[in-house]
Write a structure and sequence with these properties.
This protein has 15 helices and eleven strands. By secondary structure, it is an alpha/beta fold. The protein has a five-stranded parallel beta sheet with strand order 2-5-8-1-9. A hairpin with a 2-residue loop joins strand 3 and strand 4. Helix 13 runs antiparallel to helix 15.
């Protein structure tokens, strides 16, 4: 795209890419044989989005989040979600205290007042407690007894859940899922990674990591991501992809018409665009390309689809539907003007 590279200077792009790669290298030291997962976690971080990690126990979800907070050099708190956890245990609350002026209710911040919040086993908390995160995840603030408190920035929720444990769990409602930029599956590792864990990590102890960035450098990284150019042709494709997840769309493939009850929200289009910007920066490109969209779309859109009961019977999940949409919707629309269809 002509002029796209001028939005971010080459030296600024190279500097930002190097910083992002240092974060990625640290995560790859923490989790062996999970390069696609760690790359998407870094993309989510650069896009300033929340991430839901789903996987069986013992695969390193918690260590991954702890490593990210350490590498970023920002605040970190872990909150274990349980059925008896209350909203006040998340947000904090008012406590009656004595002062020279007499007794008064004083707000005491909860663990949500941090930069990186690990919401461990988030689906074990009741819907009432889960809802305490809704305002925080979208607006970066919490309201308690009518009083609004702004959260520190950056603010990330990285949540974990077990996909097979159903007893004593409360599935996340669609409104909560929609606030996660990505939902990422944490797969099992291969034999080579298992051997490396056994020989290099006694008792599974993770490597000692040091911060590779700080709050000021993170702010520069975010500015660099914002400067990545999103061409009109790519934005048009993202819009058509999200529109095609609705069964009433003329672009919807057969999988959508057969299995999707409700398609992706406008927030999904925003998530894909911002994640694609971050993916382009990590690849060292000054503008978003179609390949960047392909890389992030399944993780940004699949969890936002509400599927019909027939999807489960036929073994079709959200990622399969998104991949069908990516295959069915052409990158370039026939109605785009000539000046915006130049290939990225």
């Amino acid at each position: 795209m002509k002029g796209a590279a001028q939005l971010i200077a080459p030296d600024e792009l190279a500097r930002a890419k190097a910083r992002a790669e240092r974060i990625l290298a640290g995560l790859d030291r923490t989790l062996y044989d999970q390069k696609e997962l760690t790359r998407l976690v870094v993309v989510g971080c650069l896009a300033r989005g929340h991430v839901l990690l789903e996987g069986l126990p013992g695969l390193g979800k918690t260590e991954l989040v702890k490593a990210l907070a350490t590498l970023l050099g920002i605040g970190f708190k872990r909150l274990q979600f349980t059925p008896d956890l209350l909203p006040g245990d998340v947000t904090g609350g008012h406590i009656l205290e004595d002062s020279p002026k007499g007794r008064a209710l004083v707000f005491h911040p909860g663990p949500i007042f941090t930069n990186v919040l690990l919401a461990d086993e988030i689906n074990r908390a009741s819907p009432k407690t889960q809802s305490a995160l809704l305002e925080a995840m979208q607006e970066r603030r919490v309201t308690v007894l009518g009083e609004t408190h702004v959260l520190p920035l950056p603010f990330y929720v990285l949540a974990t859940q077990n996909p097979i444990e159903l007893e004593g769990t409360y599935p996340l409602p669609e409104a909560q899922l929609d606030r996660f930029l990505f939902k990422l599956d944490v797969p099992n590792v291969g034999r080579g990674a298992l051997e490396s864990i056994l020989t290099e990590r006694r008792m599974g102890t993770p490597p000692a990591l040091e911060p590779v960035t700080n709050a000021a450098e993170l702010a520069e990284l975010f500015r660099a991501v914002d400067a990545i150019f999103l061409p009109r042709a790519v934005a048009n494709w993202i819009a058509r992809l999200v529109h095609a997840t609705h069964a009433t769309s003329e672009l919807a493939p057969e999988k959508v018409k057969s299995f999707v009850r409700y398609g992706a929200s406008p927030r999904a289009a925003i998530a894909v665009a911002e994640a694609a910007r971050a993916h382009a920066l990590l690849a060292g490109r000054p503008n978003v390309g179609f390949d960047d969209v392909r890389a992030v779309a399944p993780s940004a859109m699949a969890h936002r689809l509400v599927l019909d009961y027939r999807a489960r019977l036929d073994g079709v999940n959200g990622r399969a539907v998104v991949k069908a949409v990516l295959a069915a919707v052409p990158e370039l629309a026939e109605t785009l003007p000539d000046e915006v269809v130049e290939r990225v």
